From TrEMBL:
PANTHER family: BLR5612 PROTEIN, SLL1039 PROTEIN
Coiled coil: none
Residues of the Circularly permuted ATP-grasp type domain: 82-458
InterPro entries linked to this entry: ATP-dep_Glu-Cys_Ligase-2, CP_ATPgrasp_2, UCP005522
Identification of the protein by name: Circularly permuted ATP-grasp type 2 domain-containing protein
C-alpha cells in the first residue's frame, strides 16, 4: 500500500521535503509512522479523512473568512498525515524561540522606558516613531514582572537546505492554538495506536500552563483571582478559539459590555453584582480596548480600562503596545536586539528583509520584483501581499504605485521555497508547502513551549500561502521523544 503511495509521490529536488530524502527514500524519523501507516488500506484512509471532516463540523471547529464585507464560516481543512519533528530539531527550535522572546521582551521594556536601543542607534528612531503600533500611552507604565509578551506564536519556515527561518513574530493576540489542540484530538481518534507507538510528545498541557501563568500574574494577592478572556464576540474570525480556551481553562468568556471600570478597577457584571477582575486575557486589538484612549468609536473594549491598567489594578495579557515589536520593519532588527540585550548570536535566522523606505533597497527590490514577496509592515492573514513570481505585469505595476505612496508601510523578502510535506489529497499522497507556528508561554517562572505547534498547509498545488484565509489548512505536528 505505502509503496504505491511513495512510487507516485513527486519530490521536487530543490524543495526540502519533511518526509522524503530523495526518490523513495524516507527520513529515519518517519519510519515508525510509515511502518504503521502502511497497514491502512486506501478505503480506510478515505473513511478516516471523511470522519475528520465530520468531527470538525460536529465540534464547530471553524474560522471565518471575510469576503466582500461578509463573514463566511468555514471548516478548517485538516490533513490526516502528521508532520514529524525530531527531538534534536525541536531542541534547536525551542532554544531559538526562547532566546528571541527574551530579547523582544527586553526591547519592549526598553522602548517604553529608557530607549537605550534608540540612543545607541541599534534601531533607527524613525522606524519606531513611525510605527502605528508604538503607543506613547504605554511610556513608563509599570508592567507586572516586566513581562510584555505572555503568549507568542512564532512562524517558522524551512528553506531548500533544511534551515529554519523565523518568518514572523506574532506578539499581539496570536491565534491558532485551539487548532493545534484539536488536530491532536482528531489524530487520536483516527489513529489511536500510532501516537504512543511512535513516541510523540503531548501538547495537551497548553491550557493548564496558560492558566497557571494567568493566575500568577494577578496584581491582587488573593488565592483565587478572577480571570476573564475578553473576546470581540461571535463574529470574530477566531471566536471558536476564544470559546475553546475559556472552556479548557475554566474562565469566563466576556465581551466589552460585560465589564465596567469603577475607581480605576475593572469589574465583571454578574447576576449577583459586580465582581472585580484581576487578569484579562484579551483577544481584542489595542485600538479597540479603551474608547477613552484609543478608538473613540469602539464598542468592543471597556471605557477606562487603560486607567486601571496604568494604576496596576488589572493585568492585561498580552501587554498593550506589543505591536511595535511585531512590525515587519522592526523585525529586521531582531538579530541586532539579541546581540545588544543578550550578547549572544541569534540561534534562529531571520529571512533577509529589505526596508522599502530605504531608496537603495527599494530600487533593488523593484529591479528584482519577480523573485520577491512584498508585504505590508502591519498586514496579517496573507492579505495585501504581492507574490512577485506569481503576479501579472499589471498587478505588479499597480502594487508598485501603492508602495511608492508610503514605502515605510512595506517590506520585501526574497521568495523562500518553503519545505513540503506529504498530504493525503484525493486518495493520493501529494507534496504541499508548510510552515510551523509553535506557541510559547511566558510567565514569572520563565518561558514554556509545548512540544508541537500548528503546522499550516498551503493546500492549493504550487501555492506558498499557508494562511487559512487564503485557502490553507493544517496538520497535526508530532515532536518525537527521541
Amino acid at each position: 500500500m505505502i509503496e504505491d503511495f511513495i512510487k507516485n509521490y513527486f519530490n521536487h529536488p530543490k524543495i526540502y521535503d519533511e518526509m522524503f530524502l530523495n526518490g523513495d527514500h524516507y527520513r529515519d524519523h518517519y519510519s515508525n509512522f510509515i511502518n504503521n501507516f502502511s497497514k491502512e488500506s486506501l478505503e480506510n484512509l478515505n473513511k478516516k479523512e471523511e470522519l475528520a471532516k465530520k468531527l470538525f463540523m460536529s465540534q464547530g471547529i471553524t474560522f471565518t473568512v471575510y469576503d466582500s464585507g461578509e463573514g463566511i464560516e468555514k471548516i478548517f481543512p485538516f490533513d490526516i498525515i502528521p508532520r514529524i519533528i525530531t527531538s534534536t530539531e525541536w531542541s534547536f527550535i525551542e532554544k531559538g524561540i526562547k532566546q528571541r522572546l527574551k530579547a523582544l521582551n527586553l526591547f519592549l521594556k526598553d522602548i517604553y522606558s529608557n530607549q537605550f536601543i534608540l540612543k545607541d542607534q541599534i534601531v533607527p528612531i524613525n522606524v519606531i516613531y513611525s510605527c502605528p503600533h508604538f503607543l506613547r500611552e504605554m511610556h513608563n507604565v509599570n508592567v507586572l514582572h516586566d513581562i510584555y509578551i505572555h503568549i507568542a506564536g512564532i512562524d517558522l519556515i524551512r528553506d531548500h537546505d533544511g534551515t529554519f527561518y523565523v518568518l514572523e513574530d506574532n506578539l499581539r493576540t496570536p491565534s491558532g492554538v485551539s487548532y493545534m489542540l484539536e488536530n491532536r484530538e482528531i489524530t487520536k481518534r483516527l489513529f489511536p495506536d500510532l501516537i504512543p507507538q511512535c513516541g510523540v510528545r503531548s501538547v495537551t498541557e497548553y491550557p493548564a500552563i496558560l492558566y497557571k501563568n494567568l493566575m500568577s500574574l494577578s496584581p491582587r494577592a488573593v488565592s483565587n483571582p478572577t480571570i476573564v478572556l475578553l473576546s470581540p464576540g461571535m463574529y470574530n474570525s477566531a471566536y471558536y478559539e476564544h470559546t475553546t480556551l475559556a472552556r479548557l481553562m475554566g474562565v469566563e468568556l466576556v465581551e466589552g459590555r460585560d465589564l465596567v471600570v469603577k475607581n480605576q478597577k475593572v469589574f465583571m457584571k454578574t447576576t449577583t453584582g459586580l465582581q472585580q477582575v484581576d487578569v484579562i486575557y484579551r483577544r481584542v486589538d489595542d485600538d479597540y480596548l479603551d474608547p477613552l484612549v484609543f478608538n473613540p468609536n469602539s464598542v468592543l473594549g471597556v471605557a477606562g480600562l487603560m486607567g486601571a491598567y496604568r494604576k496596576g489594578n488589572v493585568a492585561i495579557i498580552n501587554a498593550i503596545g506589543n505591536g511595535v515589536a511585531d512590525d515587519k520593519a522592526v523585525y529586521t532588527y531582531v538579530p541586532d536586539m539579541i546581540r545588544y540585550y543578550l550578547n549572544e548570536e541569534p540561534i534562529l535566522k531571520n529571512v533577509p528583509t529589505y526596508q522599502l523606505s530605504n531608496k537603495d533597497e527599494l530600487d533593488y527590490v523593484f529591479a528584482n520584483i519577480n523573485t520577491m514577496v512584498i508585504k505590508k509592515t502591519n498586514g496579517s492573514g496573507g492579505y495585501g501581499m504581492l507574490m512577485g513570481h506569481a503576479a501579472s505585469e499589471q498587478e505588479t505595476e499597480e502594487y508598485k504605485i501603492e508602495v511608492l505612496k508610503d514605502p515605510r508601510n512595506f517590506i520585501a523578502q526574497p521568495t523562500i521555497s518553503l519545505s513540503s510535506a506529504p498530504c493525503f489529497i484525493n486518495g493520493k499522497l501529494a507534496p504541499r508547502r508548510i510552515d510551523l507556528r509553535p506557541f510559547a508561554l511566558n510567565g514569572p517562572d520563565g518561558i514554556s513551549i509545548v512540544p508541537g505547534g500548528l503546522t499550516r498547509v498551503a493546500l492549493k498545488e504550487g501555492s506558498l500561502v499557508v494562511n487559512s484565509s487564503q485557502g490553507g489548512g493544517s496538520k497535526d505536528t508530532w515532536v518525537l521523544t527521541s
